Fold this protein.
Amino acid sequence: MSQTFLDRTIDNLRLAWRELRDSSVVRSLGLDEGQSRQDRWRRQIADCLARRGGAVSARSRAAELGHDFLRLDDAGKRAFLHLLVNEFGVDRDHVSAIMADWNMADDLAEQALLEAELRTALVPPFRMILKEFNSLPQGVKFLVDLRADLLRWRKEAPGLAILERDLKELLASWFDIGFLELQRITWNSSAALLEKLIAYEAVHAIQSWDDLKRRLAPDRRCFAFFHPGMPDEPLIFVEVALVNGIAGNVDALIQGDQDAHEHQDDQAGAVADTAIFYSISNAQAGLAGISFGDFLIKRVVGELQRDLPDLKQFSTLSPIPALRGWMNKQLDAMAQKQETGLPKAIEAALRDCDDLMGPKPPAKHPDEVSERTRANIEYLAAWYLLNARRPETGSAFDPVAHFHLTNGARVERLNWNGNGKENGWLQSFGVMVNYLYDLSMIEKNHESYVGQGKIAASGAVKRLLR
């Protein structure tokens, strides 16, 4: 995301909150400029929590606090948040006293009252500050970006983990799927929104405005979820190409026929029989771990079926982002004579590909690979998608595979040279995969994967396991 784009977003937020804070209520606080920075923060936070003067005054104080927070650098923000957590967290002495009373209570009714009191006592006061921000203009976006910062600071500020978890819990309740609105994005959408698509695209970078225009041509679709508290900010969006047959090369899919794009009308795509989901991007880092993707695909399929009843197939053209990393890990273990737990045939195929993994491999593009090596890579990719698991959960090792399998798709087809660009080579030697959403099998596939760990796959993919 460009610095200009970030600066503009933050400047808009500062302006909105400065207008709120510039009131007689806030000016009458009389903060002493001679106070230390931390003393001033304590005073500001305490004033917000006191809620003197009613909701309007509290809102103005929250705007002042937020405006001052936005002016801090990263170190200053972390210092402020540490003070917020350490000095305005749960009163543990009060919690201990309630628990002692509960242990001494004589009957269930008294225990029930103490349990209700305990639930209230376990809510940290700083949560009220977060809720106050939620009511401010663009306050929801501020909190989403705050959590993104907290996630970014996990290693250098582990003491803020409690704030990150608390904020995630609040955001999960505010971003319930029932509150979200699905919208189609077109070339006629606002320039500001289109600029955000370019900035947030995380799978296949949008190279220019002409590139974006091709992706929003009449034979394409783009849908996004929006939240009422962030009406101008997409939460997650999916790009779809309407074609005939399942596509196997992402460059050809994205570029399409450029001349034809210039002359299409609104009916373009009406003769297509397949919808290819080729890019799904989470636009807000602060909403990591709060899933919308499964709902997005199902909603988009419904929209496409309604508008284009001739569509017969719904498929993805997806990367295999963790394949090469997984291969590297297995080869390292084998080199150190460690037990991998892999079948001997998989270890043999890995050894055949070993020369591709070093700093100066003999090939840097799928077209430069021998037929033998290609067969080994396809074999390894098929085995990896159907068998490599995360030991802690038993789910598919590949994150994209796990996402689509959870949603009820099946592994349909591997595509050699599906992505011949550098990132495709570094991820999976250019191999891409189609996940097919067979509408009659989605629920069964989902239940089999989530409940029993079984991965649905086509006969073509299974045959690659020779």
Observations:
- The beta strands are 181-184, 220-226, 236-243, 274-282, 313-316, 410-415, 432-436.
- The chain has four domains: 3-89+124-174, 92-121, 178-316, 323-463.
- The two ends are 44 Å apart (CA to CA).
